[in-house]
Amino acid sequence: MKKKIFSLLLASVAALPLSLRAEVAEIRVPLGAGGFGFLPLHIMQKQNLVEKQAEKLGVPVKVNWSNIGGPSGMIDALISGSADFISAGPPSFLILWDRTKGNVKAVAAMSSMPMNLNTNAAHLKSIDDLKPTDKIAVTSVKSSIPSIVMQMYALQKYGKDQVFKFDPYTVTMNHGDAAAALLSGSGAITGHYASAPLDQRERATPGIRSIMNTDDVMGGSTTFTMISTRADFAQKNPKVYQAFVAALKEAQDLIAKDKETAADILIESMGGSAKWSKADMIAILNDPKTKYTLKPENVMKYANFMFDIGSMKTKPKAIGDLFVPGTDVSGGN
Fold first, then answer.
1. pLDDT tens-digit profile of 97-107?
2. CB 55, CB 271: distance < 8 Å
3. Of 65, 67, 84, 132, which residue has the fewest beta carbons closer than 10 angstroms?
4. Under a CB-based contact definition with an 8 Å cutoff, are residues 179 and 194 in contact?
């Protein structure tokens, strides 16, 4: 009899609309690789924005922020269920969307900003001058933003049969190690495809200059980091999901309105004021090329290119195909 009653209870819970079922009490979110591209996450953590938004919706939730960095670690965490929201560049997200057959969906764009290929090698006027001994540091060979951008450049200049022309020159390094190697002049690498603020620090160093900019190749402002989740998580936890998106938007709005506070949080997340100047951080935040918006920019350009060269098996028909159903992507591309 007890088993029958228990079975009936389970069946009745399963029959409830999703909106009436209990949502998760805790979510797990990696903070990402750090720097300007991940600043909204650090603001969300510091000011408990997700918790505040969730409280408004009547679904108290705790956020477990972790220090997983790099796309591969975060992707593994999301697929395994040990993370609920992750952040990555568009190419990494698109590969994940493709390989999971759309079971991983985009939540929102988070930041847009350019990356620069910086070098201290006198012989490099452009990447066309690369020699067999040259090594360009990127966060992930083949699937990082710089790798895809260099493939795009190769296609434009040399044709489809040469699209992977520059891949052999790339090596995987995290941004901190790559910047240290370039700034030291050790010769371990010839160049570093860098993002803010390491990009600015490198280019302020005598003898280091930029020879390629991602926005130039992409044809304008382009999403740098974006948030994704599992489709089933968003479906089963609509209010928690809504709270997370609202918190992300609140963090982006804070950056726009209060760059002093945003800079303080950024500096703290990067090791403190002994390493970074607040004035320099505010200057980067004031740069029109540094943007924080929920709207995707040029993500479909990545998707179409990656499908055309065989890096993706499925081609999204429209930007909305990549996002959680119901997401407002009007004005995005």
1. 999 999 999 99
2. no
3. 132
4. yes
